DNA sequence: AAAGAAAGCAACCGCTCGCTG
DNA sequence: TCAGCGAGCGGTTGCTTTCTT
């Protein structure tokens, strides 16, 4: 007996979000903070399910989200964590503070999975699920450790969660230090995105950032959105990408994306955001403070030294198997 | 240049979990 | 203890864009 849909009784709009809706939602959250999603459609007049509002905010409008190209380091982290945790995207996303679980999930399904399969020479016949593959013992013991996990899921997860929480902060430091230029400023020195969608993501975040900044620095009145209605030529999959440039005051030109994001994250209204935002203080910390969790993630076998060649991915995936065994000991 | 195929991504759906009364 | 509710998560879908022929 499943629960009824959360918005069963009201007419809800579906499909891509419009700029107007984005603005309404952002404006509301700016005033009331994220959370209490049930009340969002009621109070804003949005014809959207509360779930949809939460998703939109969490995945696209929330400040501090990094979109676009995944770095090699992020790829490796995802691959390794996926081998370790399975398709627990939220848990994986907690290690990549600027990425959303949805983003990681999509990236895994569209890029990494195929990449690993290609590199492992997996054919269609033996195209087994990568999660299964990576979580099973490949030694003489045929017992899949995943099964054990399932059996002990409750305890295992509690311990895992504890470890995650304890290690998260330290891991952020390590990851940030390893990627000094990539995590926040995708537009600086990084290769041009290979297709427009990627660029659009970046600009989406940027634009929304500007939008928010504009609001935080001005009165809390909701801007007139009437001029927005034609900004979106088609409903896009571009993330409800606003052509926010047209929405913004001319002053919005000033300041980098980073500055804008930082400004927003410092805005009190966003301090209750569920997902952690990279602590810029932490990133400037001591290089040597690698955590246990990082060692756990990047343990031996030269992973840390990996460059950007594809062999790394094979290594990582294989390590995933081994690490999975190690993981049993850890937990 | 056009059509079809493939890839990529945003959003939805259904389920589970945790909190509260 | 249990039921109701809201929030969160992972799988899936369907639309848009890009690539190939």
TrEMBL record:
<keyword id="KW-0539">Nucleus</keyword>
<dbReference type="Pfam" id="PF00249">
    <property type="entry name" value="Myb_DNA-binding"/>
</dbReference>
<feature type="region of interest" description="Disordered">
    <location>
        <begin position="215"/>
        <end position="257"/>
    </location>
</feature>
<dbReference type="InterPro" id="IPR009057">
    <property type="entry name" value="Homeodomain-like_sf"/>
</dbReference>
<keyword id="KW-0677">Repeat</keyword>
<feature type="region of interest" description="Disordered">
    <location>
        <begin position="182"/>
        <end position="201"/>
    </location>
</feature>
<feature type="domain" description="Myb-like">
    <location>
        <begin position="62"/>
        <end position="112"/>
    </location>
</feature>
<dbReference type="GO" id="GO:0003677">
    <property type="term" value="F:DNA binding"/>
</dbReference>
<dbReference type="InterPro" id="IPR001005">
    <property type="entry name" value="SANT/Myb"/>
</dbReference>
<dbReference type="InterPro" id="IPR017930">
    <property type="entry name" value="Myb_dom"/>
</dbReference>
<keyword id="KW-0238">DNA-binding</keyword>
<feature type="domain" description="HTH myb-type">
    <location>
        <begin position="9"/>
        <end position="65"/>
    </location>
</feature>
<dbReference type="GO" id="GO:0009733">
    <property type="term" value="P:response to auxin"/>
</dbReference>
<dbReference type="GO" id="GO:0005634">
    <property type="term" value="C:nucleus"/>
</dbReference>
<feature type="domain" description="HTH myb-type">
    <location>
        <begin position="66"/>
        <end position="116"/>
    </location>
</feature>
<dbReference type="InterPro" id="IPR015495">
    <property type="entry name" value="Myb_TF_plants"/>
</dbReference>
<feature type="compositionally biased region" description="Polar residues">
    <location>
        <begin position="246"/>
        <end position="255"/>
    </location>
</feature>
<protein>
    <submittedName>
        <fullName>Uncharacterized protein</fullName>
    </submittedName>
</protein>
<feature type="compositionally biased region" description="Low complexity">
    <location>
        <begin position="217"/>
        <end position="236"/>
    </location>
</feature>
<feature type="domain" description="Myb-like">
    <location>
        <begin position="9"/>
        <end position="61"/>
    </location>
</feature>
